[in-house]
Amino acid sequence: MSMRLDKFLKVSRIIKRRSVAKEIADKGRIQINGKVAKSSSNVNVDDELIIGFGNKTLTVKVTQLIETTKKNDAELMYDIVSEDYKTDYRQPFSD
């Protein structure tokens, strides 16, 4: 079983809206297993997704595909492999 990339990102709540997921994918900011993906690309279990947001790069491993989820179940669809920030604004500045 597989699922469209834009639908996976929405159902898993990695990206809140499918239209935003489509836009990010079509700009070439998402990779599936190291290859640039389109919004219509298929996602399968055990695929690794690398998603480039503005300041953050999120790498996740797909653990299961669910057609519809409740908020609590969405996180079961993937494991976060890494979360890298170009500039980490979460840390206080030191003098």
Features of this protein?
alpha+beta; Structural Genomics Hypothetical 15.5 Kd Protein In mrcA-pckA Intergenic Region, Chain A; 5-stranded antiparallel sheet; two-stranded antiparallel ribbon; globular; tRNA-binding; S4_RNA-bd_sf; RqcP
List the helices and strands and how they pair.
Blueprint: E1 3-4, H1 5-11, H2 18-26, E2 30-32, E3 35-36, E4 42-43, E5 48-52, E6 56-62, H3 71-74, E7 78-85
Antiparallel strand pairs: 1-4, 2-3, 2-5, 5-6, 6-7
Protein name: RQC P-site tRNA stabilizing factor
Domain RNA-binding S4: 3-66
Subunit structure: Associates with stalled 50S ribosomal subunits. Binds to RqcH, 23S rRNA and the P-site tRNA. Does not require RqcH for association with 50S subunits.
3D architecture notes:
- It contains three helices and seven strands.
- The longest helix is centred in the first third of the chain and has 9 residues.
- The protein has one domain: Roll (Structural Genomics Hypothetical 15.5 Kd Protein In mrcA-pckA Intergenic Region, Chain A), CATH 3.10.290.10.
- The protein is an alpha+beta fold and 95 residues long.
- The termini are far apart.
- α1 crosses α2.
Question: What would a concise description of this structure say?
Answer:
21% of the residues lie in helices and 31% in strands.
Unreliable segments of 5+ consecutive residues: none
First-to-last CA distance: 53 Å
Average of per-residue pLDDT values: 90
Helix percentage range: 10-25%
Could you name the CATH topology? Structural Genomics Hypothetical 15.5 Kd Protein In mrcA-pckA Intergenic Region, Chain A
Return the structural class: alpha+beta
CATH superfamily descriptor: RNA-binding S4 domain
Largest sheet: 5 strands, antiparallel
- Please tell me what the overall shape is: globular
How many β strands by DSSP?
Answer: 7
Radius of gyration: 14 Å
Number of helices: 3
Q: Which architecture would the CATH scheme give at its second level?
A: Roll
Task: Give the domain tally.
Answer: 1
Order of secondary-structure elements: EHHEEEEEHE
| CATH class assignment | Alpha Beta
**Strand neighbour order, sheet with most strands:** 3-2-5-6-7
Protein name: RQC P-site tRNA stabilizing factor
Family: Belongs to the RqcP family.
Organism: Lactiplantibacillus garii
InterPro entries: RqcP, S4_RNA-bd, S4_RNA-bd_sf
